Amino acid sequence: MTATADRPGRARVATTEARGADDDGVHWDVVVIGAGISGISAAWHLQTMCPDRTFTILEGRSNLGGTWDLFRYPGVRSDSDMHTLGFAFKPWVADEAIADGPAIMAYLDETVDEFDLRRHIRFGHHVRAAQWSSDAKRWTLSVRSGGDDTTITAGFVLMCTGYYSYRGGHRPDFRGEAAFEGPIVHPQEWPDDLDYVDKRVIVIGSGATAVTLVPALAASGAAHVTMLQRSPTWMVAAPTKDPLANLLRKVLPAQLAYRLTRAKNVNLTDKVYKRSRTHPDKVANALRKRLRKHLTDAQIDEFFTPRYDPWDQRLCLVPDADLFGAMREGRAEIVNGTVDSFTASGVRLDSGEHLDADIVVTATGLELVTIGEMDFDVDGERVDFSKRWSYKGFGYSDLPNLVSTFGYINASWTLRADLVSAYACRILNHMAASGTTIATPTLRPSDADMPPRPWVDGFSAGYMTRMMPLLPKQGDRAPWINTQDYKADRELLGDVPVDDGVMIFA
Length: 506
Hints:
The chain has helices at residues 37-49, 67-70, 82-85, 101-114, 208-219, 243-251, 254-278, 280-291, 297-303, 322-328, 413-434, 462-465, 486-492; strands at residues 3-4, 13-14, 26-33, 55-59, 121-123, 125-133, 138-145, 148-159, 184-185, 200-204, 224-229, 235-238, 316-319, 332-336, 339-343, 346-349, 354-356, 359-362, 375-378, 381-382, 390-391, 395-396, 402-404, 439-441, 503-505. With 506 residues, the chain is an alpha/beta fold.
């Protein structure tokens, strides 16, 4: 395949692109799988840092955006500030630091159009499997598109598919569901025509989705909303707008104001997280003190004091204290309990209490998956990711020419997506400069005694613990670690040689 160069800073577009990726035999230097935040970051970095490489983005859905296109439930929003959830290369300039789904989608659309990235995306291309051939030195991707099966080959693959299943969320089976006379809805599959106005709604769950849904439903016409939680979650109220960010943007260039706000928020999040690890009681007391601005001590004790320490699970953001306001006005309530069974008119708890409902929403979590819900083979042997070691949190032992992006559980996803994308481009550039075609993370003899640790350590959320046995493991030494620490990752993935004696170039 031949290719031509565009202007500097823009990746070449393969001449075979005119035939379309539906034709067997199309080959790309790099294939990005997924056109959400991670895929858009990867595309920008490839176009900017690797203008001599051809690449395409394969997206299984009909639109970009990933999470932000998939989730359509009322009030869907970020639970991180947009100055860190936004890309490093594209300032977030809206007044609201906590943005809703449509605003985030508008930002992503603006980004791909501003940097001419949309032309690289092939929508409706679902990658089902990937096979690596050491002889051919390339990946062969099995792709389903428009009802047809085809193959696309790639010298290098960037997995930007996120970490949860798009096929459906985590959904426990509750006894007696068939008896319930109203709809039972999971937020991941929210119907466009669901009428909840003047209806009594029970939301089962207490994570970020439930904390978003309850005040949104209460504010948009539901008769009453009950959040049914098995146990409390740590929550913190924060304003939707960041006054300092908006002030800086008025007096400084947009990129500089954005960079300063981003640094402020990164440092604050890092400080709170690390203090919660070293002094969990002090952080817990500080969180409870902040809640007293909105709630009584009795409410805090009963509904907002978890059994676990802060940041053992993700801290839930309550923008503008909207959940607490809905409770204060009587439009919403929280009930502690577990479901015994459904009835025709609601839910019966283990305590014997009955909650009346017209609609039940099961905000019971995500279903995590291994990389992209795909089958991987290396020279005909199926890859078992649970037996692989994590290399710097993005690569896997003995898996060549593959990088995957997994963000942070304690900070904004995009912070890590940008770091990983830039590092992947540096690997590609080193391969070009050294005349090599294969890059493989490889255990050193000195790594043989590493004790295995979970891929994400010290995080007890159910959606993580359910999947952890199937995910790669990390060791006790660099680079076989997955830090979940942005500042540590800036050293691990920053201006350091990619040819480190562990990533073997051949």
